[in-house]
């Protein structure tokens, strides 16, 4: 496109997003700018009754917002242990971390007569 000798070039792309912009978990640092109450209220508006808050005793992590679908597959104690060992050591007090937490359940069934 050209107007009065000026040429404009526009590169445009877009994609659909989902709200909230994560699906499984959100780890909230103790001093994150939004706070537990603010994030909780936002979730109640976007996805009512979709997430459970799991409190922590970690020095940098205040709580974890977990999609209730995950809690039907795995107990919150196991989830918390996995996060404490693998995620919490990398969280600063001011951060909010999106965690992709995919659960695959398999079971070996042995039939007895």
Per the principal axes of the C-alpha atoms, what is the gross shape?
extended
What is the makeup of the main sheet?
4 strands, antiparallel
By oligomeric state, this entry counts as single chain
Proportion of residues in β-strands: 15-25%
Which regions have little confidence, pLDDT < 50, spanning 5+ residues?
none
> For the residues shown, what is the average pLDDT?
88
| Spatial strand order of the main sheet | 4-5-3-6
Q: What pattern of helices and strands is seen along the backbone?
A: EEEHEEHHE
Q: Roughly how many Å is the radius of gyration?
A: 21 Å
Share of helix, binned = 10-25%
Q: What secondary-structure arrangement, pairings included, does this model have?
A:
Layout: E1 2-3, E2 6-7, E3 25-29, H1 35-46, E4 51-55, E5 61-67, H2 68-71, H3 76-86, E6 96-99
Antiparallel strand pairs: 1-2, 3-5, 3-6, 4-5
Give a short overview.
Helices cover 24% and strands 22% of the residues.
């Amino acid at each position: 496109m050209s107007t009065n000798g000026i040429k404009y070039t526009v590169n445009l792309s877009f994609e659909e997003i989902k709200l909230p912009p994560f699906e499984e978990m959100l780890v909230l640092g103790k001093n994150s700018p939004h706070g537990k109450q603010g994030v909780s209220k936002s979730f109640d508006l976007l996805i009512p009754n979709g997430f459970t808050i799991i409190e922590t005793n970690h020095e940098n992590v205040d709580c974890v917002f977990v999609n209730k679908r995950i809690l039907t597959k795995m107990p919150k104690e196991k989830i918390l242990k996995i996060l404490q060992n693998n995620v919490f050591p990398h969280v600063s007090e001011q951060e909010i971390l999106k965690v992709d937490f995919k659960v695959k359940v398999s079971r070996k069934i042995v039939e007895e007569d």
